[in-house]
């Protein structure tokens, strides 16, 4: 077994403040940024981390000009501090709830394609009902969203064609075909219902393979025995949409993600004659065995209500 892991089995009682300083440094990747967040001096953070390393008998970071990289021992400790501080936040929220103070913060990981139309409406609705609750919202790939739920980095995730897992519970789901997105003067825009073979004649802008939408498109292309001309491979769904607007490539998204752009004449969303793209799943999900805070419960309930509206629409 690695010496660093052996050292962690002999942890002496540690200063809670030092753990906080370590956790923020691990999260931000920099003593300076951690100090700014914690409103202390960098030397205070550095001393606290050095004391922890002395107590544990193992280095927690590898220091270089590029910043702080966690060692195996640091990664292990980070997993524990992450759970500890998340649980403390939940306890604080629960106590506030008992006192009738409906405040706190909720962490949401979501697919970036939801940012333009769906999530702003949800956030506005939620803020009107719960003005004392704040958001930490991050846009990631499907794989990263599922990972954040498992690792307790996220309260709620909104995935696109996410994997079915026993430890992830689906609260609401919207199923809709994936459309082909083109600019209004693109030759495909005049086609009433193109097939995937028609689309593959043009360069494509696709999200990278960690995205559920990309995997769905790749499966459809493979089954069609076609060949894709990949013009852009990116970790940004928003960029694929913007490139489609310019006419430089064709993109893919469910229609509800681009309704305003279509209504404004910036995009045309074409329903394809392709069974493999008929049932894209957008899912609100949480960790099955984790108790949600008041803030997370309130947001999840509102997301479920908005998903019902999507289905009705």
Keywords:
single chain; 313 residues; alpha/beta; five-stranded mixed β-sheet; three-stranded antiparallel β-sheet; 12 helices; 12 strands; 45% helix
Tell me what you see in this structure.
This protein is α/β, with parallel strands linked by helices. The protein has helices at residues 3-8, 16-28, 31-38, 42-56, 72-98, 118-129, 142-150, 196-199, 212-224, 237-246, 259-263, 294-312; strands at 61-64, 67-70, 104-110, 133-139, 156-160, 168-176, 178-182, 203-207, 229-234, 251-254, 268-271, 280-287. A hairpin with a 2-residue loop joins strand 1 and strand 2. The termini are far apart.
Topology, pairings included?
Elements: H1 3-8, H2 16-28, H3 31-38, H4 42-56, E1 61-64, E2 67-70, H5 72-98, E3 104-110, H6 118-129, E4 133-139, H7 142-150, E5 156-160, E6 168-176, E7 178-182, H8 196-199, E8 203-207, H9 212-224, E9 229-234, H10 237-246, E10 251-254, H11 259-263, E11 268-271, E12 280-287, H12 294-312
Reading side by side through the largest sheet, how are the strands ordered?
Answer: 4-3-5-12-6
Count of DSSP helices? 12
Shape: globular
- Give the biggest sheet: 5 strands, mixed
Structural class: alpha/beta
| Poorly predicted residue ranges | 1-13
Mean residue pLDDT: 87
N-to-C order of helices and strands = HHHHEEHEHEHEEEHEHEHEHEEH
Q: Work out the number of β strands.
A: 12
Provide the β-strand percentage band.
Answer: 15-25%
Distance between the termini: 57 Å
Query: How helix-rich are the residues, as a percent range?
Result: 40-55%
Radius of gyration: 23 Å
